[in-house]
Design goal:
This protein is α/β, with parallel strands linked by helices. It has one helix and ten strands, in the order H-E-E-E-E-E-E-E-E-E-E.
């Protein structure tokens, strides 16, 4: 391998490592709340993250990914009596949300060169008083899924 090619490869690797470090720092600043919070925000940039909510009165949550992925597990959370909202945005990444099978989940989605799917219990199979989760998802060159299976 020629000397110039080795230098180019070295600079590419250095740029990736620096990008990953900066991404982790930004994602940490953007993340708010913890597993017990009734409102949370999770971010993953050039990396991955798992978040498991144990909220007793979950009102809202958001997840942002860029060249990364997030898994959000809400099976141990209890929704606010008025329902909850989840805002998901991913660019060149992915988000998976796992919910209990007795939640009424409706999804509002917008995708550009990507997709978002919901594999949850159909609304007609649930009682009218089922806990309600509204998901607003925007995907750009990425994907997302709300599912009842972990």
């Amino acid at each position: 391998m020629g000397r110039k090619l080795k230098q180019v490869i070295m600079w590419i690797v250095v740029a990736q490592v620096v990008g990953w470090i900066v991404g982790q720092m930004i994602a940490k600043k953007m993340t708010k709340g913890d597993e017990a919070s009734d409102e949370f925000q999770v971010a993953a940039i050039m990396g991955g993250k798992k978040f498991e909510s144990h909220a007793r009165d979950l009102k809202s949550g958001s997840a942002i990914t860029s060249m990364g992925g997030i898994e959000i597990d809400l099976r141990d959370a209890t929704l606010d009596s008025g329902g909850a909202r989840l805002d998901l945005k991913t660019t060149m990444g992915g988000i998976q949300v796992i919910v209990p099978n007795d939640w009424a989940v409706d999804v509002d989605k917008k995708s550009l060169a990507g997709g978002f799917d919901a594999k949850v219990t159909p609304l007609e199979d649930l009682p009218e008083d089922a806990p309600k989760l509204h998901v607003h998802a925007v995907t750009r060159m990425g994907g997302g899924l709300v599912t009842t299976k972990g």
